[in-house]
Known about the structure:
34% of the residues lie in helices and 25% in strands. The chain is α+β, with helices and mostly antiparallel strands. The chain has a single domain, classed as PAS domain (Beta-Lactamase, 2-Layer Sandwich), CATH 3.30.450.20. Helix 2 packs antiparallel against helix 3 (51-58). The two termini are 20 Å apart.
Amino acid sequence: xxxxxxxxxxxxxxxxxxxxxxxxxxxxxxxxxxxxxxxxxxxxxxxxxxxxxxxxxxxxxxxxxxxxxxxxxxxxxxxxxxxxxxxxxxxxxxxxxxxxxxxxxxxxxxxxxxxxxxxxxxxxxxxxxxxxxxxxxxxxxxxxxxxxxxxxxxxxxxxx
Length: 160
């Protein structure tokens, strides 16, 4: 238990970007590993098979790529949504400056995480697809090229 608490506070200290999120505990090591593995595998598929073939796989519900509240999403570096199977109406939009309830421009932060660090975690508040009230979410993104075009691919999970 003590090791988990240390992990929680250590990871939270590394990942927390705004004071408003300091009230949230970091995700469990199991969730961290599950999402990072999913995103790394998705990035490899995009780079080996191309955007169209990979996105066709990622859009299949109840698959290894989209199950429960876990799904992949992708942006180009200008903030255009390339993939969001849970909310397909977002594809082709640019929510780059959209902010969560705490004022965090999370789409921008997801893209910058990939651009600056190559990969990493971002926490924010967003409503689950089909829900009205926001929930805390942690997402991992990785920089990737979609048929030569730089962007990020990611996935996340809700803490509640």
